[in-house]
Amino acid sequence: MAMRTRIYVDGFNLYYGCLKGQPHKWLNPFLLCQNLLPRNSVEHLRYFTAKVSARPNDPDQPVRQQTYFRALGTIPQITVHLGHFLTHEVTMPDAAAWRQGRHVPRHVVKTEEKGSDVNLATWLLMDAMDNQFDCAVIISNDSDLKEPISLVRNRFRKAIGILNPQRNVSQALRPLAHFIKPIRGGALGNAQFPNTMTDSTGQFQKPARW
Fold first, then answer.
1. 42 dihedral zone (left: phi>0; alpha: psi -120 to 50; beta)
2. CB of 83 within 8 A of CB of 49?
3. In this structure, what DSSP letter does residue 3 have?
4. pLDDT in tens, 105-132
5. What pLDDT is recorded for position 203?
6. Where are the alpha helices (DSSP H) in the chain?
């Protein structure tokens, strides 16, 4: 019998690991996991991210993200969990000057995505306690997830898989996984949403810049 499997996606880790600058952003992550895990019964996928804000050099970024959320919403087995961004001005040392032993302060805008890793860890543990899966597959390479993954494996005796969006696997996570698979461009290309889609609101299109 195929193992009941749930997927936990760190959306920003996935994006910056293998989607940014690539032509595969219109990704159906549920189909991706079904393709990469043909022997597993993939029952549910939790997608953890945060709403982005418009930037001077990319004012349409939130519109593209909302369109992608609509695409995710057409898959009943996907649940989106939202964290948030914190943006604030800070003073930080200039890197080039610091390497020369000089301290030159620069006033910069710092943006931090908050909540996704905590939300992922929380739901991973809750689903394990509720016996919602036999195998948990994490799409992330974030070493901060070491402790909750360790608990799911060692206390709840669940199988752990990692679909790695980055070139190298975290040394903190590697020993905790029963299996690790890379996410390659071919797999991403074979798991794209259709260019034209329909939901309860109506028809919508893949963003032109994607």
1. beta
2. yes
3. P
4. 775 554 555 668 999 999 999 999 999 9
5. 98
6. 11-14, 29-36, 61-73, 95-99, 116-129, 146-154, 185-189
The pTM of this model reads 0.88
Residue 190 has pLDDT above 70, yes or no: yes
Is the separation of the CB atoms in 23 and 188 below 8 Å? no
DSSP H helix total and E strand total for the chain: 7, 10
Instruction: Report the candidate in 145, 95, 155, 137 with the shortest Cα–Cα distance to residue 120.
Output: 145
Helix, strand, coil share (%) of the chain residues, nearest 5: 35, 30, 35
How many alpha carbons fall within 13 Å on the CB side of residue 197?
21
Q: What pLDDT score does 204 carry?
A: 98
Q: Mean pLDDT, to the nearest integer, of 158-181?
A: 97
- The C-alpha atoms of residue 99 and residue 199 are separated, in whole angstroms, by 53
Could you tell me which of 72, 20, 105 has the C-alpha nearest to residue 191? 72
Q: Report the C-alpha gap between 209 and 138 in whole angstroms.
A: 28
